[in-house]
Amino acid sequence: MKQAFVRARRPEHKRQRREAILAAARDLALESGVRNVSLGGVAAAVGLAKSNIVRYFGTREEIFLELAAEGWTEWGAAVAERLREAHGTEAMVAVLAETLVERPLFCDLLSQTTTTLEHNVSVPAARAFKRTVLEVMAELGRAIVRAHGDLTEQEGYEIAGAAAALAGTLYPAANPPPTLVELYAQDPEIAATCLPFVPTLTRALRALAAGLPALRGDDDEARG
């Protein structure tokens, strides 16, 4: 709902204003997709002029980059929690795939990160985002090793990164725009080539978990 704001002067009021902007952007993205949300749309949703929005976030991309960082943190916590009860490749891969498919906004943000959201942002915003991702990835690497004792932390790190990267690639294909929805309805042969999200992600992560240990000697030779 559109709100009428007065100028935020106290630190807690500024935090509330930032949270309201993020909440509005989150709601709009869930409704129509990240790529379709403009800075003007976010401003209208919170009852502010665009010039006031940029006092809190320099650009539209910085708003969504912060939401992406929040998504990484939340996903990492969910994966780590579920992996406490998971043992072996199948269970570990299932946790990664299930936690991603349960988070469509996060997958949408992943699909936009390198192509859009990391552009037109300040160095401090980019640094904060990257540090969050690296911290989450490191923790996920350790959690994956606890669930799958045959992997190293570096291999767990790579699997977590691959899961996020594949989710960002597969999500748009699994959620096509209206034109492609119509095309797929008209042409089942073309529709059959659209890769399903969870089965494709699961198969790829299983293959990676099986293949990484076999490459350890090659990696050592390359470094040498």
From TrEMBL:
Matching Gene3D superfamilies: Tetracycline Repressor, domain 2
Spans through the membrane: none
Keywords of the record: DNA-binding
DNA-binding region positions on the chain: 38-57
Stretches assigned to the HTH tetR-type domain: 15-75
Family annotation (InterPro entries): Homeodomain-like_sf, HTH-type_TetR-like_transc_reg, HTH_TetR, TetR_C_34
Protein name as it appears in the record: TetR family transcriptional regulator
Species, as recorded: Actinoallomurus acaciae
